[in-house]
Structure formats: C-alpha cells, structure tokens
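Our working data are protein records whose layout never changes between entries. Instead of coordinates, the fold is spelled out as a row of discrete tokens. Here is such a record, shown just as it appears in the course material:
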Amino acid sequence: ASFISKFLIITSLGSFLPAFALVPRSRPLLSSNTAVFRRQSHTFLSKMSTSALSMTDFSTYHNSVTTEISSFSKTKNVNYNIILGNEAGDADSIISALAYSYVKASAKDINPGIGSSCSSIVNLPLASIPRNDLALRRDVTLLLEMVGIDGGKLIFVDDESFTNIANDDGIQKSVSLMDHNKLRSDLRPLHNFVDEILDHHKDEGSHNSVQGENREIAFDDQFALVGSTCTLVVEKIMKQKQSMDNFKLDAGLGLVLLGVILLDTMNMCPNAAKGTQRDEEAIQFIIHESEWSTFVVN
C-alpha cells in the first residue's frame, strides 16, 4: 500500500479544496485549485488500480439505495433499520451512516445490498441533511465521487421515501444513531424506535433503553476516546473480520473511512491532539486490510 504515503484528505475551505498528505505529515499542501487537485488525486490513485470490482461493492450498494427502498416500500413484514448521523450532517455523520449500513448488510451473510429476499430487515442509510445541502458538503461530495457514488442517489432527510416511512406508525422500523446520541427534535416520531447508538460525544442521557453493546458512546471523563465515529465503524469491521476467512475490506469503503478519520483527527497531527491510539489502529487496519488492487478511482 505504498500509495498511502500520498493519500489525500479532503477538506472544504471557501471555494478551495486544500489537501493534506498523510506521510510525511510535514509535506506541503498540494494545489488548492479544484481542477488541479482532481488531476493530482486521479494520477496517484490510478497507479494502484488493476481492475474494477465485480462483486456488489460499496459504491454499487449506495447507487442502488433509492431504487431498492422504493421496491421494498410495497412489501409487507419489512423492518426498516434507519441509520442516520447528526443534524449538522458533516462528513463523519454522513459517511459513518453510509459505511455502517454496508457493514451491517455484509454481516448478515447476504450479498451486500439494501435488503434481501430472505431477510426481513432493510437497511436505510440516510444523509441527515436536506437534499439541496449536499453541494455545500464539499469534502463529502468529493469523497463520494472518488469512489463512484452518485450523491443524488442517496436518501436525504427531506426525501418523501424517508418521511413516509418515518411518519407511518404501521411500518416496522428501528433507528441507529451515528455521531450523536440524542435524536433531533424534528424527527420526534422516531424517538421510541432508537435501538442503537454509535457516537463519540458526551452522553446526553437520552434513549436510556438502549444499553450494552448497542450503546457505544466513546466518551469518558470529558474527553472523546476516538476522533471520529468512522473509527467506531472500523472497529465493528475488525470484530467482523474475526469470524471471516480471507477477509479483505472493500477498497471504496476503506477510502471513505480513511478520509474522514484523517479529516476529523487533522491528519493525526500530534500538535492538534485530535487523534487517539484507537484512531491510529483503525487507520492501520484500513491501510493493510483494504483490497486496494481492485480499486478504480473515478
């Protein structure tokens, strides 16, 4: 994974997209010009590409969300697992929700898709912002583009396909909160359906029926124990690996998780003091376990 030494982390700043190199951390910024940045990132990522993924990969999974949710909306005896980040809808919230949905589907021993004919649970990964706001999340949109996900095909908090499910008491559902531990007030109808929390902020003491492994809040003694919720998603994957032979992490999934962890921890810069040992372990896991040879940059 020598290309990792040139891996770019994308952050939004005004009309520019500065990019920070992972190793060495003192390396100067690459061009902040968007067009030049895209050419540079395409060049080095293309060097490690050998073939396109043939299985149902991370990008295919999310590019089919809207279509598959629509097909399941007419099916009875379906339990929707709504997976959503916090109201701010930053990169960690959006990407962790998308990533965790894919991880949960993969863990059910089914071809990683939104649902399965043999499964009554349908994952509904949600971008927790209005659809029109996605263009303002430049770090998110660039990461999605790099792994071949069309942001317009995601499901957003103001989409009818989601609001119909959220507001219909006759539809079975559960809610997984990512990057926050108290459901936003405008989604109050879903309050009693929260059954899982994955977060790294101070516990607000809500949804107290969610306990044990389903309530993972990486915060203690006024300090976050990880710099990113995406790190917690990687830890879930690490546990998943223990029961799998010949495990390899989908490269698109690895790329977006790595990008957000580096973004949230400010490139693991010691002076920033944002990253923890758990973040470092997650980064190393992604680097060494991702199937980089199958990845084709978009």
